[in-house]
From TrEMBL:
InterPro entries: NAD(P)-bd_dom_sf, SDR_fam. Pfam families: adh_short. This is Retinol dehydrogenase 12 isoform X1. Keywords: Oxidoreductase, Signal. It comes from the Eukaryota. Belongs to the short-chain dehydrogenases/reductases (SDR) family. The gene is RDH12.
Length: 312
């Protein structure tokens, strides 16, 4: 058990209750998002599960309602791979709710095949970053009106392997080794940093999160990743443990001065760092064209802006 505890990482220790607060969580019908929704519902929030499959969302919501005795767990349709769906969700939400206190941009895909969103963007970047970018933009005024409010973006430690290919947002050239997911997670991080700057002084703050390596459904599109997840499942976090960093950023008091920072509630950070440095050295990715910002340059720029990780 002590080894398990070592790998489990930080725990959200705040006892803050949030009755009456309005929360939107994307992709909360499964995995980390579902557990985040459960805990926020337990603490009294009105929780919107924004997901692609309303039936699956309803089944998660009824489980959470029964578990937490909070009837204010609602499901709304949102497909982040389609800007029309994002606009329709935002329009419906803004008509229905006068307040929004916490937005958790949690949904994510890890796809290795060369797919695109409805609007023609590379699928990982399109869903994980561009979709959430548009959603946040459409809800930002409501967040400001409800301040103090927070935006939590799920990134990943794997952003270390990411690069921003400005010339390749539509996936004209396939990415090597499924790096598209890494690029999208780097975009989540950069978005958090820039958003924090632009909303400074409005009472809305934002945080990026690495939840740890979590036993969820994220790897379902890749046989190799599924195999890895199964082989090492003992060392991976449970979804409840994986939700702790998002919960910490959504709830903990006094985080406002840390707006724009990247949070990791995990004790395995140094192991992860060594592994990623090794990977980066083993598979150096060369620049492709003028619009490409390289990983090491980005890391340098991020740390110059105080974007090093905060552990709790
Ligand atoms: N599991 C991990 O080890 C890990 C590590 C680092 C970061 N993350 C991040 O944590 C977040 C949650 O992932 P998870 O591990 O719970 O995986 P998960 O697959 O269980 O959950 C992802 C959710 O996103 C939803 N989703 C996917 N595409 C969508 C779309 N187009 N529109 C709306 N919803 C969509 C899925 O339906 C699902 O509910 C993701 O952003 C992921 O990148 C996970």
């Amino acid at each position: 058990p002590s080894i398990r505890k070592f790998f489990a990482g930080g725990v959200c220790r705040t006892t803050v209750q949030v009755p009456g607060k309005v929360v939107v969580i994307t992709g909360a019908n499964t995995g980390i998002g579902k557990e985040t929704a459960r805990e926020l519902a337990r603490r009294g929030a009105r929780v919107y599960i924004a997901c692609r499959d309303v039936l699956k969302g309803e089944s998660a919501a009824s489980e959470i309602r029964a578990d937490t005795k909070n009837s204010q767990v609602l499901v709304r349709k949102l497909d982040l791979s389609d800007t029309r769906s994002i606009r329709a969700f935002a329009e419906g939400f803004l008509a229905e709710e006068k307040q929004l206190h916490i937005l958790i941009n949690n949904a994510g895909v890890m796809m290795f095949s060369h797919s695109k969103t409805t609007d023609g963007f590379e699928i990982n970047l399109g869903v994980n970053h561009l979709g959430h970018f548009l959603l946040t933009y459409l809800l930002l005024e409501r967040l400001k009106e409800s301040a103090p409010a927070r935006v939590v973006n799920l990134s990943s430690v794997i952003h270390h392997l990411g690069k921003i290919h400005f010339h390749n947002f539509r996936g004209e050239e396939p990415y090597r080794w499924g790096f598209a997911y890494c690029h999208s997670k780097l975009a989540n991080l950069l978005f958090t940093r820039e958003l924090a700057k632009r909303i400074q002084g409005t009472g809305v703050t934002t945080y990026a999160v690495h939840p740890g390596i979590v036993r969820s459904e994220l790897a379902r599109h890749s046989f190799l990743c599924c195999l890895f997840w199964r082989l090492f499942s003992y060392f991976l976090k449970s979804v409840q443990e994986g939700a702790q960093t998002s919960l910490h950023c959504a709830l903990a008091e006094g985080l406002e001065p840390l707006s724009g920072k990247y949070f990791r509630g995990t004790y395995i950070r140094n192991l992860a760092k060594v592994a990623f440095l090794y990977l980066r050295a083993s598979f150096p990715v060369t620049a492709r064209g003028p619009g490409c910002l390289q990983g090491p340059e980005i890391t340098k720029q991020l740390s110059a802006c105080g974007m090093s990780a905060v552990s709790f």
